[in-house]
Description:
Blueprint: H1 3-10, H2 12-20, H3 24-29, H4 33-40, H5 47-62, H6 66-77, H7 81-91, H8 114-122, H9 128-143
Helix pairs in contact: 1-9, 2-5, 4-6, 8-9
Amino acid sequence: MQLSDVFLQLGEERLRQLVRNISIGKLRTYQLYERFKTRTHLPKVNTENLRSAVPRFWKRLEAHEVEFATDLSQAILIAHLDMIATVLNFLGIPNQEGFFEKDIDAKPFLTEGWQMRVFDHFKADYNESLLLFYINHLDWELGGAQQAFIPASVTPAA
């Protein structure tokens, strides 16, 4: 599964919610603003431009633009390093404030049913779309997921 498939399987409405959570300040702090602006083809990254670009983003994800999906996921997740660190700590995955070694073998930490345990534990604390995206991103990055995790109890997104 490609990263764009994670977005596609979660649905366009969840993408809209995720894009709303992009922090322009965090993009600047982590020196990702210019790269993200270039990758998204936006003249300026602001709330209004991001909101109106969601349909174009969706088309690019449908076209499986790998670099775009990567930069979009970075822009979404960089604003939520606190959640990422909390989830990684819950799973016992060694990390430095939400960042982990790229060579890490996470299989011992991602035991059967880990996605549901994470979802159940944190669903009251974090936005559902964001939590689902991060669970699926982590599974894609470390677990080699073939399909997105969406619990039966979650309302399907459009």
